[in-house]
Amino acid sequence: QRNLQKAWIHRTVKNPKFVLSGHGGRKVAYRKIGKLYLAVVFAEENNNLIIRTAHWDKEFRPEKAGKKEAN
């Protein structure tokens, strides 16, 4: 189990700290929760957000990776 709450996943997609391009046109939204970043992989299809997966990303370091912050 990843011990993820649905509210965290929804909050991450709706109000991410960072959004990166993923594979196959998907996007990855990141939001810090506690000491870790939650990564949510999603796609936009027909004006709908489709959540593909969500996981804790222990390696994500925006300051070292040069990631751009979401607007």
User: Strands of the largest sheet, in order across it?
Assistant: 1-2-3-4
Shape: globular
- β-strand amount: 35-45%
Number of helices: 2
Spans of at least 5 consecutive residues with low confidence:
none
Proportion of residues in helical segments: 10-25%
How large is the radius of gyration?
12 Å
Largest sheet: 4 strands, antiparallel
**Secondary-structure element order, as H and E?**
HEEEEH
Task: Report the structural category.
Answer: alpha+beta
Averaged pLDDT: 88
How widely separated are the two ends?
31 Å
In total, the number of strands is 4
What can you see in these coordinates?
With 71 residues, this protein is of the alpha+beta class. Helices cover 18% and strands 44% of the residues. It has helices at residues 6-14, 62-65, and strands at residues 18-21, 27-33, 36-45, 48-57. It has a four-stranded antiparallel sheet with strand order 1-2-3-4. A hairpin with a 2-residue loop joins strand 3 (36-45) and strand 4. The protein is globular, with a radius of gyration of 12 Å.
In short:
With 71 residues, this protein is of the alpha+beta class. It contains two helices and four strands.
Keywords:
71 residues; alpha+beta; 2 helices; globular
